[in-house]
Amino acid sequence: MPEIAVVTDSCASIPEPILEELDISWVPYYIHRGEEVLRDLVTAKRDSFYRWLATAKVLPKTANPGPGDYLQVFQSLAEDRGFREIVSIHMTSKGSGAYQAACAAKSMVREILPNLKIEVIDTLNVSMCHGWMVIEAARAALEGKSLFEIVNLVKKMMPITKMIQTADTLKYLYMGGRIGKAKHMMGSVLHIKPLIGMKEGIIVPLGQARSRTSAYEKMIKMVEDVVGHMGRVKIAYVHAAAMEEAEKIKAIAETKLTCVESIFAELSPALGVHTGPGTAGLCYFPV
Fold this sequence. Notes:
Layout: E1 4-9, H1 16-21, E2 24-27, E3 30-33, E4 36-39, H2 46-53, E5 61-63, H3 67-79, E6 85-90, H4 98-112, E7 117-122, H5 127-142, H6 147-157, E8 162-166, H7 171-175, H8 181-190, E9 193-199, E10 202-209, H9 212-227, E11 232-239, H10 243-256, E12 258-266, H11 269-272, E13 280-286
Parallel strand pairs: 1-2, 1-6, 6-7, 11-12
Antiparallel strand pairs: 3-4, 3-5, 8-9, 8-13, 9-10, 11-13
Helix pairs in contact: 3-4, 5-6, 9-10
């Protein structure tokens, strides 16, 4: 067992077998669907949720875990499992309150367990970019690295871990208020596939394409521009109810890049709700 516990939340979208293998603790987000309150990946399962989302007329609201949710996990790790150090790793604070909630929980737990040391990290990233940092932190913990070394590892990954993603339709970006009606209508008529990424913790447009294939080729070209032809990367192919599309991205990537490690990861419902079923993309970092 590692001496340092690694905590994250469901929006990291890390596949369950990896969570179990690396002993990663996670806290579910909330999804408010009308009067119904769901917990991400607990009562909101990927398959059934995305089937429902394809028919939804109004998007559900999502909310990050509260300080009490993190406090419960921190206490359990210390009192039930004997951990004395914890690193808690979260998606960008510019898009979610999870980091702030975990910081509040850290202050609360200090009153109860003054000897428990907790480092809370705002990755300024999302999806499996956030997920990769959690995975590498957990691997470092299993190798016996110190809390200081693990925090530095994550901080070094933050500026070089990148997401590129496209949506099958602009419908969910429009329903969520992220684009206007005119852009939604024009994009739908022209079958535009927007490419989005993240810069300094904020979602930014990276371009657009007129077909999925073109979008995927542009994605890989963007990665190639950073790491070079056949550059070495660790890469996660992310999707929302679109495994076949993720496999297409992988097929292109493997002709242009040296993929040291590849993972398929389906977005958690609390994350996928914003771009909808059919979303596909990648999260990578050079190695």
